[in-house]
């Protein structure tokens, strides 16, 4: 059995987070469901980035250990090891993916993801420490739809080996 790549791990995590979020949402546990929808969208997006763009998990220039986050050379500073784009949490991916929109694969990915990622603009990882009162049913429903759209895009891209 071949060893799983980081993009495979992200893809698997995306599916798991989405299923768990659906289970919790059905049980009325909106804050945690909302959080997991964000992670599902984030993981699927990172898998897409690794599969279809110049984004990498390789060691950054001047380093020896694999990167903890997907990264790419900054398009405005090619060759500068101190100027890279790191792809973090889902609420940051809108800004980061926009920087890739110049390339042959980056532009279609940006176009395909932009609307759904914008739904997570006010999602934040720090909310795991909050009491949960922020989670409104309509917002969680929109984030579920956006996460599902991103997962479908990911599944179709895997199936057909290309972006739309």
Task: Give me the secondary-structure topology.
Elements: H1 6-26, H2 30-52, E1 71-73, E2 84-86, H3 90-98, H4 106-118, H5 137-160
Antiparallel strand pairs: 1-2
Helix pairs in contact: 1-2, 1-5, 2-4, 2-5, 3-4, 4-5
| Rg over alpha carbons | 16 Å
Helix content, binned percent: 40-55%
Query: Cα distance, first to last residue?
Result: 30 Å
* H and E string: HHEEHHH
Structural class: mainly alpha
| Quantity of strands, as a count | 2
Point out poorly predicted stretches: none
Largest sheet: 2 strands, antiparallel
**Overall mean pLDDT score?**
91
Description:
This protein has 164 residues and is mainly alpha-helical. It has five helices and two strands, in the order ααββααα. It has a two-stranded antiparallel ribbon with strand order 1-2. The longest helix has 24 residues.
Short summary:
With 164 residues, this protein is mainly alpha-helical. The protein has helices at 6-26, 30-52, 90-98, 106-118, 137-160, and strands spanning 71-73, 84-86.
Entry keywords:
single chain; mainly alpha
